[in-house]
Amino acid sequence: MKKFNKIIAIVIAAYLIISLTLLALVQKMDNKSSSEYKVEINRIFSGLVEGVCFTEPDLSSYEFIKSVSFLPDSAGTSKNDIDKFYKSTNGLKYEIKPWYDGGKLLGYLRFNYIDKNYNNSILLIVEFILFIFATIIISVLLYIRNSILKPFNILSKIPYELSKGNLKEELKENKNRYFGKFVWGINVLRENLDHHKIKELKLEKEKKLLLLSISHDIKTPLNTIKLYAKAIAEEVYDTNEKKILAAKQIQEKSVEIESFVKEIIKTSSEDVLEIEVINSEFYLKDLIDKVIITYKEKCILKMIDFIVEDYSNKLVKGNLDRAFEVIGNIIENAFKYGDGKEIKISFYEEDYCQLIKIFNSGETISQNEFNHIFDSFYRGSNAKDKQGNGLGLYICKYIMEKMDGEIFAECKKEGMSFTLVLR
Q1: What is the total count of domains within the chain?
Q2: pLDDT in tens, 180-197
Q3: Distance (Å) of CA 15 to CA 11, 119, 127, 137, 141
């Protein structure tokens, strides 16, 4: 912002310097032209008054004086001659001097001259244009500073505040055409982060309470098992019937502990994520265009053949952004686990549904791993040394079910294939 203020100050200073220079130049030219034509008039007048009668002088060497006329002071001078003498000629300016011979007035001399102050007029016009131009530039710079840079300078601090967890300070929305929607989006992001933070804390608290409760409940059967095991080890029971009864108790308590463990696993796997999916309708072309714009260039850079087959532009049910997220997850997996040769998107129609098949070349996975690819936090053997959390395909399945659709996977000899079913 300080650098931009310096630019504005430099523009204003440059305008003032140029403007003052032009004004000084105009003043100088005014003084010069006013003195030059008077010098010529005095020179011609001095030459004429040396004689006793008027003789039209040679004006070829004079720059300002264009003609000289004489009006005699006599009774024979007509009114028409007088009017003609004082009449303006072709826009020329004139100056009249009396001509005396000794103490006697012979008449009047009229000197017609041009005014070269038109140069001054041009400079004044330039001065005015420069003023308009400088006003426009300064206005634009002030508008950019106040309407774009100043709001952006305030907004640039928000991501840092969000990263620190400062989620309570709400941005005031305004009608700024450049940042109004951005401010609205930041506020929505802030609210979502705040909501997820509260939900995460609540969930964490519930999980801790549940684990404390279950761990307390496990102690009873565990102590029973330890007691019976110790009794058997120390041969407290003298008959087989008592030993069998103790073994049955150990088995029952083991089943009870197993049920607690299953409850812990179930609780941990439930509500792994909650994704809001607002279903509506969108055209298939909008989805595919978004995919092409995002991934075609990436495939070119990675030297992967990116093929999108022909399709009919159908109106499908679901959420455009979420459907793009599903396809994006599959393509990102293809980048990670494919062989980097080919990614192909094909289209089919079946039972009033739109099928989108995404194929990537590469090695396939085992049948056992294939059965778990849509499970949360599951990662196959080919995921070693690759970043990820095992949620990508789980999210895809979750979103497709929310959109009343489906997703299927298929292992082929030359690679993996995923089929999206949209209503």
Answers
A1: 3
A2: 677 777 777 777 777 777
A3: 6, 21, 10, 11, 14
